[in-house]
């Protein structure tokens, strides 16, 4: 049965893939559904990163003001990361199933409302000076639950909004929205906190509302048909099995998992801002902004000049550069040098993210995108939130500098090891997926 064309003109057979060259827009932003999606994602990312930065800053300062040492206060940051990771780890397989089973727009709106509740709670507690470590721990858990469902739902929704031919450009623009949120979010969190401590959370409340409204303007999109002969648990396992058998997807996902898990320095930004670089709230915001600026510049470049050749080898090189810049940042006691290295970290990270997300989306059937995106998010969350726990734990045991430097070394070692374990990453030249015959064989193996 033909579906409604995503360009809003007439029915087409494959969700935009069969649209003629004359009908394909030169930019995904010319598609109303995609514009609304980008606004929604940008607003939500702004709110998330403003809250996450201030939560970390409040946690570290409450711990230090209570008399804890730098190491002990770093341990509190590790606990915040762990509390955000546990819901993601436990619920991600179910969130992927939900993204493939239910209307992705409605599911995303529900999770955004949960994040709206978190922002409102923190705004009120901070305004009345009632913020405590237990409250911050509790909100971290709820945010983890909300993000568990928001991530795979939005990731799976984006490919339904544009023709396949311009999907890499759409991924780059979606990443721009995310990276711009990462730039402005920490800036709002850091600078607004200096004005009124509750102001970042109040602004996050408004941004969450805007995100929900914008997503409401996304019209109906094709919902992939799921196998009716499988129970929900079987459908979840089906998605995991697909990732396991597709070595391209598995290699790309796990490369990010181990590299960023080991080299995650962002959790220790409060330590560097207060006790190593001694730059306070304003410096904290700048540290958080630097990698996001680098990432946004890279994403903007790819939105106009999409990468086409030697994508696999370039992804490996980008992750190695990510690790090297992390090492230099770890040793730095100069604010300009630290910001420069973090800018490079952001460029390298976005470079690998662009390639990885394009490969995953283009090598995955639409009816499995929610579940595969959920697996991808689980690894991203493991590398980010659990990576925060790992970095904070190392800082507690060996100090923050040793933790960051060791992580950078680990990221470079991961690249060397993964290039041997997954040779397909070294030999992949373009984003083009295997031909339909190979895809059919793969589907038969995982069915």
What does this 3D model show about the protein?
α1 (32-65) runs parallel beside α5 (167-195), α5 runs antiparallel to α10 and α8 packs antiparallel against α12. The protein has one domain: MFS general substrate transporter like domains (Growth Hormone, Chain: A, Up-down Bundle). The chain contains 16 helices and no strands. It has 447 residues and is an all-alpha fold. The two termini are 23 Å apart.
List keywords for this structure.
mainly alpha; Growth Hormone, Chain: A; 16 helices; globular; disordered N terminus; disordered C terminus
Please report the first level of CATH classification, the CATH class.
Mainly Alpha
Beta-strand segment tally: 0
Quickly give the structural class.
mainly alpha
Described by strand count, sense and barrel closure, the largest sheet is: none
Q: Which residue ranges are poorly predicted, with pLDDT under 50 across at least 5 consecutive positions? A: 1-22, 436-447
Task: Show the helix and strand layout.
Blueprint: H1 32-65, H2 70-101, H3 104-127, H4 133-157, H5 167-195, H6 199-215, H7 232-245, H8 247-262, H9 269-276, H10 280-304, H11 311-331, H12 335-362, H13 369-398, H14 400-421, H15 424-427, H16 436-446
Helix pairs in contact: 1-2, 1-4, 1-5, 1-6, 2-4, 2-7, 2-13, 3-4, 3-6, 4-13, 5-6, 5-10, 5-12, 7-13, 7-16, 8-12, 8-13, 8-14, 9-10, 10-12, 11-12, 11-14, 13-14
């Amino acid at each position: 049965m033909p579906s409604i064309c995503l360009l809003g003109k007439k029915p087409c057979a494959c969700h935009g893939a069969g649209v003629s060259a004359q009908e394909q827009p030169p930019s995904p932003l010319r598609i109303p559904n995609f514009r609304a999606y980008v606004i929604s994602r940008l607003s939500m990312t702004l709110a998330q990163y403003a809250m996450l930065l201030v939560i970390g800053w409040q946690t570290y300062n409450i711990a230090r003001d209570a008399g804890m040492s730098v190491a002990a206060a770093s341990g509190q940051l590790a606990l915040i990361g762990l509390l955000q990771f546990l819901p993601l780890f436990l619920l991600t397989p179910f969130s992927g199933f939900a993204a493939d089973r239910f209307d992705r727009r409605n599911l995303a709106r529900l999770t955004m409302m949960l994040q709206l509740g978190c922002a409102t709670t923190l705004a009120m507690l901070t305004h009345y000076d009632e913020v405590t470590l237990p409250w911050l721990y509790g909100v971290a858990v709820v945010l983890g639950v909300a993000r568990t469902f928001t991530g795979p739902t939005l990731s799976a929704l984006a490919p339904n909004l544009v023709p396949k031919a311009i999907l890499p450009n759409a991924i780059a623009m979606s990443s721009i929205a995310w990276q711009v949120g990462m730039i402005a979010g920490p800036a709002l969190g850091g600078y607004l906190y200096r004005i009124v401590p509750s102001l970042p959370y109040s602004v996050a409340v408004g941004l969450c509302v805007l995100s929900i409204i914008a997503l409401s303007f996304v019209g109906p999109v094709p919902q992939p048909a799921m196998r009716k002969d499988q129970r929900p648990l079987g459908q979840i396992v089906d998605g995991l099995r697909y990732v396991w058998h597709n070595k391209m997807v598995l290699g790309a996902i796990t490369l990010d998992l181990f590299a960023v898990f080991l080299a995650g320095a962002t959790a220790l930004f409060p330590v560097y801002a207060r006790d190593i670089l001694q730059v306070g709230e304003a410096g904290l915001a700048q540290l958080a902004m630097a990698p996001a600026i680098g990432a946004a510049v890279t994403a903007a470049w790819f939105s106009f000049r999409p990468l086409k050749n030697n994508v696999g080898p370039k992804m490996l090189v980008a992750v190695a550069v990510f690790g090297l810049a992390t090492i230099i940042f770890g040793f730095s006691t100069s604010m300009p040098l630290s910001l420069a290295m973090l800018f490079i970290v952001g460029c390298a990270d976005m470079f690998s993210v662009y390639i990885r997300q394009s490969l995953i989306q283009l090598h995955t059937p639409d009816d499995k995108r929610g579940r595969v995106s959920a697996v991808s998010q689980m690894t991203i969350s493991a590398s980010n939130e659990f990576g925060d726990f790992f970095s904070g734990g190392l800082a507690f045991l060996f100090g923050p500098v040793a933790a960051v430097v060791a992580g950078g070394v680990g990221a470079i070692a991961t690249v060397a090891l993964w290039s041997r374990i997954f040779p397909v990453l070294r030999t992949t030249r373009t984003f083009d997926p295997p031909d339909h015959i190979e895809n059919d064989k793969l589907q038969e193996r995982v069915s």
